[in-house]
Amino acid sequence: MTKEGKMIIPLTEGLYTLPSSPYEKPQLIGSKCINCEELFFPKKEKRLCIHCQQMTLEEVKLSRQGKIASFTIVLQPPAGGFYHGPVPYAYGYVDLPEGVRVETQFTGDFNALEIGGDVELVIEKLYEDAEGNEFVTYKFKLLKEQE
Prior knowledge:
The chain is mostly beta strands and 147 residues long. It has one helix at residues 143-146; strands spanning 2-3, 6-10, 29-33, 39-40, 57-61, 65-74, 89-95, 101-107, 118-128, 134-142. The chain has a 5-stranded mixed beta barrel. Strands 4-3-5 form a 3-stranded antiparallel sheet, with no helix packed on it.
């Protein structure tokens, strides 16, 4: 995918869909066992369900909205130099209606975050490389900020 001649590159392939138009919304990609109905995120590359031990996993799109289960505000970059995004950043977990808990970053007003807050999936730039290519990832944003 390109934007003004620069590449838009998913930080990790296969975790979410990238919208191809402004009207399309991103979705997380998970796995569901058709035998026991267990859900997983991220999707499992092998079809083996770790819950019932059957080869019955299929790819599914997960809900775009959920509730904040926990969060923290990180004020310094992690050691080792592997994180390229802006600091501070908000990080935590979102519970989706299907019962899946997703590890995520949050975007928007960090002061407005609260446990149980309603959030929605967005795809945002995490950083740019030296050539100006945008590396994007999934994050969650408070619904009330989007109105």
